Amino acid sequence: MGTALTSVGLPVAPAIVMSGLGLSLTVADFARVVREPRAVAVALATQLLLLPLVCVGLVTAFGLDPVLAVGMVLLAASPGGTTANLFSHLFRGDVALNITLTAVNSVLAVVTLPVVVNLALDHFRPAIGDGAVGLEFGKVAQVFAIVLVPVVLGMAVRRWSAAFADRADRPVRIVSAVVLVAVIAGALLAERENLGTYLVDTGPVAALFCACSLTAGYLLPRLFRVERRQAVASAFEVGIHNSTPAIAIAVTVVGSERLAVPAAVYGVLMFPIAALAGHLLTRTRAERPAA
Fold it and tell me: What is the model's pTM?
């Protein structure tokens, strides 16, 4: 992916994105779990338990190359981000629930992400690096540094000065969006020689996985009698993953640029698919009163 991007850009990119997330979080966002236990529990169970299984089923059914298969599972195990909050706001979801889910999931990902990806590595046995994200201390510490430390620092800044955090929020969001695009572009360019093949292989799987994630994220909460606005929030939280940490972990922790391709492809495809899902949810809501 290039020396500069690998040694400097990738460590910095998730730090910017995740610290920007932290600027919008407070301790109260974690406390909301107690007040909204059903909505939080169903959404987290869908994201942490169901999605990896769905992902494994899809990559197996499509006969995806082992490296790309593990890359998809890495993406599936990655937490959501501020993009989910934006879509939830645009399509009238419960943004407060999104913030809570993102906060809790960012903490849990430090444990769940290495576990899920390590199981995928053992199952698919791709020929990459030493073959493990690893539960050993060194690599868990790397995941911790990529996923959680920037969030905590962002929250610390907000606690120190909420006014400063509010002023910094918009610029950091803009920089985060630029960084996200740069990281996705870098991941795709790094494998440009095989990009056409990878897009053909991973594109349908990534698109179908995104559609399944959005659908499950909405229907399962509704099945458990979670009110509609919270179900919309759950749909976007479950269906929109944070590609930047996934790409960073693939390249810097596992040591495979090819492993980062599914996350990069998903990062491109999820926007139009999520927008279409939001349109359908809004249209369905509008048609009910008319009927």
Answer: 0.78
